[in-house]
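Hey, sorry for the delay on this. The queue was backed up all week. Below are the sequences that define the complex (chains, strands and the ligand SMILES where applicable).
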Amino acid sequence: MIEGSVKKELVDGQELYFLSAEAWQEVFDSGQFQNKDLPKRLIDKIKKVELPLSTKHRELVITLGFFGANREVFSYPLLRGENRYQRIYLEGVKCSNCQWIGRAGNPLVSEVYWGISNDNPSNLLMASARKKFPKINCPNCSSPFDRFFIWAGSVEERGIQMKN
Ligand SMILES: [Zn+2]
């Protein structure tokens, strides 16, 4: 790894790694992070979905971390808050009213909490996210989504209108 290209921070008691563009390129070239293989599926998701979204929306940060006894590598999308980071699961969504298509951030999905320390139980972190963040509506037409999302965006400048 290029020195200074990876920054480590403790988030919810878990070490997460913030990578520079060069460091991401190294991960993609080698298929590894800190000598651990990344599944191809994960690399594709990071490359095609997560990093393009993060480039477009600076409040969204994509990090890497480890979980489980085998220290498997996983990507952790975070929303940059004033005092802390909030983990979110990026779901593909389509607005049922205007057909906007994008990704929405859901803090209530257990896999984003894989690897956190036992001092920060995921159910408490989910409850605090639910209290702390307003539920957001469709960024294009303001219709409510049927799930608890706290962020939504797409790689397009505006929402994608799918009209015949
Ligand atoms: Zn909409």
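DSSP finds three helices and ten strands in the chain.

I'll add it to the shared folder too.

S.
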